[in-house]
Amino acid sequence: MNSPARELILFIAQGAYAGKFPVAPGTAGTLVGALIQYGIRNTSPLIYISITVLVCLVGTWAAGRAEIILGRKDSPSIVIDEIAGFLIAMFMVKAGWGYLAAGFALFRLFDITKPWPLHSLQAVNGGLGIMIDDIGAGIYTNITLQLAAFLISR
Fold this sequence. Notes:
Elements: H1 3-13, H2 25-40, H3 45-70, H4 80-89, H5 97-113, H6 118-121, H7 126-153
Helix pairs in contact: 1-3, 2-4, 3-4, 3-7, 4-5, 4-7, 5-7
């Protein structure tokens, strides 16, 4: 594979190289997701969904290719899954630093612990296998935050 294509794949899969952070690369990738989310949080739901779907689709492709380039199944340096998952986690969540911090903490918790059935999704091969458990962690986080917001507002 030529070098520019290889570098583009790794740039995407490693979340603008956040995945190369020597300690907790998944957390570094989630921080990139938080920065992207901050940038698109005030867009319409349609634009937010479109960007999130694009990140998921391009991320699935790039993660699968990066896995081959790096020669390691689900390399910790591949963090596009954390970026996509965090965008899902924060979709239509009430604005505020408290919700952002809670979303960050919950997403990392669900991503690391992989509650049922997220753990079993890691058996899926390729880019989809890398992405799907983090998408699930994002969904779990979003449901938890929406429920918390509902209960707080009562």
